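Input/output pair, single chain:
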Amino acid sequence: MEEILLDQTKLPKHVAVIMDGNGRWAKNQGLMRVRGHEKGTKAVSQTVKTCAKLGIKYLTLYAFSTENWKRPKLEVDTLMRILVSSLRKELPTLRENGIRLKAVGSLHQLPDKAQKELAEVVELTKDNDKMNLVLALSYGSREELTNAVKLIAKDVVRGDLEVEQIEESTIENYLFTKDMPDVDLLIRTSGEHRISNFLLWQIAYAELYFTNTLWPDFRKKDLMMALKNYQDRERRFGKTSEQL
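Output:
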């Protein structure tokens, strides 16, 4: 396959990924589902490194949704174990590449050990400024929006905010992702064509890219193909082609 060349002036500022297909990959190999999640960490590492080298400023990975708590206990426990071990293992890579780790979601629902490890890596990488790696953990967009509405309502009741003052930027300031740019490119692996309650507000004008590749098989070439596809599209944001 010939090398994919990208226009460095047209890279997305924020890429988000729904890392889907770990379980199916394991089933295809005749393995337990948890083996797929373990194998998927290689795809995470390669994607993070590639985005950092390209100069993409934000990469958000859908690591664990609010709905994932409903999965079998063994799978959930394994996912939490992988999270903790991966954070420890990848810390040197984050430092070497100037990557700041962030997390969004209902983080208080995570096991204490995972919360502790996450907080430590966030603290140790807080001064890195080349790229932001954002993990969506125990995250659900509807829950995020519901929480934002509650917080806004409380501020209105207290008199800290007038109803007439509420606009889009106001709502954004109450989201988990405040101070982050909207998503430019959303990638979903495994052939599914759903958003699955991920960053519903933030992807309002995102370009959507779906690939049949299962997440454990996702490599640099797959990411480059997604980025090239993104660059070949015309982003109009409601305007006509002639207005651009």
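The beta strands are 14-18, 58-65, 99-104, 131-139, 185-188, 207-210. The radius of gyration is 19 Å.
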